């Protein structure tokens, strides 16, 4: 059990740090895709679609096994965080896009009428309103990322599934460790989803 709790902590770390990467990078993708220049939007859209349409496990294997041959080597957990963050950033970018598009046109017009610089318009007017709209959707992707962390066992990250497999290999009992892992995922994911629904109802008032 202590090993599973240690694996749970590593799973939570991967989820938290991966989420932060996906939130930051997703916003970058969203803003770049709004660029008036096709020289910016075209390559960015290709990268985003490529990442979104390839399996997360393949991306993790590429980062962990291929990049070292090019001189780029990261610790397993760091690789997992980068992989999760990069993969989910392509989805959070769509969330940000929807949030930005949902800001009433009058807000843009008011900022223009006040002669606000474009940077200040984004920081002080548009993004705060967009963030308020996208928080529940971003939370849903955090839960999805949390449930995808067992894939990190494939690159030797000692998460819950990795620990459960190690215990099972020693005791030859797969039922109890794997069942406990499943229960831990439910115990964390379901209450979190309920909190997100409550937050969504509060924000849409």
TrEMBL record:
It is a multi-pass membrane protein. InterPro entries: AA_ABC_transptr_permease_3TM, ArtM/GltK/GlnP/TcyL/YhdX-like, Ectoine_EhuD, MetI-like, MetI-like_sf. The keyword Transmembrane applies. The chain crosses the membrane at residues 12-33, 54-75, 178-199. It is found in: Cell membrane. It comes from the Bacteria. Residues 8-196 form the ABC transmembrane type-1 domain. SUPFAM superfamilies: MetI-like (SSF161098). Pfam families: BPD_transp_1. Its main location: membrane. Keywords: Amino-acid transport, Cell membrane, Membrane, Transmembrane, Transmembrane helix, Transport. Belongs to the binding-protein-dependent transport system permease family. PANTHER family: L-CYSTINE TRANSPORT SYSTEM PERMEASE PROTEIN TCYL, MEMBRANE COMPONENT OF AMINO ACID ABC TRANSPORTER. This is Ectoine/hydroxyectoine ABC transporter permease subunit EhuD. The lineage of its organism: Bacteria, Bacillati, Actinomycetota, Actinomycetes, Kitasatosporales. The gene is ehuD.
């Amino acid at each position: 059990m202590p090993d599973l709790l240690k694996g749970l902590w590593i799973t939570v770390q991967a989820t938290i740090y991966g989420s932060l990467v996906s939130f930051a990078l997703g916003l970058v993708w969203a803003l770049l895709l709004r660029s008036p220049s096709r020289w910016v939007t075209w390559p960015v859209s290709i990268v985003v679609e490529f990442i979104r349409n390839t399996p997360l496990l393949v991306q993790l294997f590429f980062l962990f096994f291929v990049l070292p041959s090019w001189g780029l080597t990261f610790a397993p957990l760091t690789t997992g965080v980068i992989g999760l963050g990069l993969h989910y950033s392509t989805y959070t970018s769509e969330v940000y896009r929807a949030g930005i598009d949902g800001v009433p046109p009058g807000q843009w017009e008011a900022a223009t009428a006040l002669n606000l610089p474009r940077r200040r318009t984004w920081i002080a007017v548009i993004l705060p309103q967009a963030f308020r709209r996208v928080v529940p959707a971003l939370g849903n992707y955090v839960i999805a990322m949390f449930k995808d962390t067992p894939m990190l066992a494939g690159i030797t990250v000692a998460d819950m599934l990795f620990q459960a497999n190690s215990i099972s290999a020693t005791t030859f009992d797969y039922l109890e460790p794997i069942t406990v892992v499943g229960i831990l995922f439910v115990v964390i994911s379901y209450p979190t989803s309920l909190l997100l629904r409550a937050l969504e109802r509060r924000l849409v008032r």
